[in-house]
């Protein structure tokens, strides 16, 4: 059995990835980052309007009811 991994990667990069879409999304992300930088850092209240509590996910097996 031959290792055709390189051929697969080349096909993926050349034929399956829409580089026009990638470029458009990158430009859009850069523009948003620049805009946020120009606006300054928002406070926590501005980021979570309406007293909305953000969801927090724990990566441990600690029972939350045991934590003070």
Notes on the structure:
The chain contains three helices and no strands. It starts with a helix and ends in a 21-residue tail after the last helix. It is elongated. With 68 residues, it is mainly α. Helix content is 54%, strand content 0%.
DSSP summary, beta strand count: 0
Largest sheet: none
Shape: elongated
Protein structure class = mainly alpha
Query: How far apart, in Å, are the first and last alpha carbons?
Result: 58 Å
Quaternary class: single chain
Strand content: under 5%
pLDDT averaged residue by residue: 77
N to C succession of SSEs: HHH
Q: From the alpha-carbon coordinates, what is the Rg to the nearest angstrom?
A: 22 Å
Low-pLDDT runs: none
Q: What is the helical fraction, as a range of percent?
A: 40-55%
Counted by DSSP, the helix tally is 3
Quick structural gist:
The protein is built from 3 helices and no strands.
Offer a few descriptive terms.
54% helix; mainly alpha; 68 residues
Lay out the secondary structure.
Elements: H1 5-16, H2 19-39, H3 44-47
């Amino acid at each position: 059995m031959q290792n055709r991994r390189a051929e697969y990667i080349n096909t993926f990069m050349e034929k399956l990835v829409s580089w026009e879409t990638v470029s458009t999304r990158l430009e859009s992300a850069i523009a948003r980052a620049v805009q946020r930088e120009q606006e300054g850092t928002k406070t926590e209240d501005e980021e979570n309007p309406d007293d909305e509590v953000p969801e927090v996910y724990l990566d441990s097996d600690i029972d939350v009811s045991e934590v003070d």
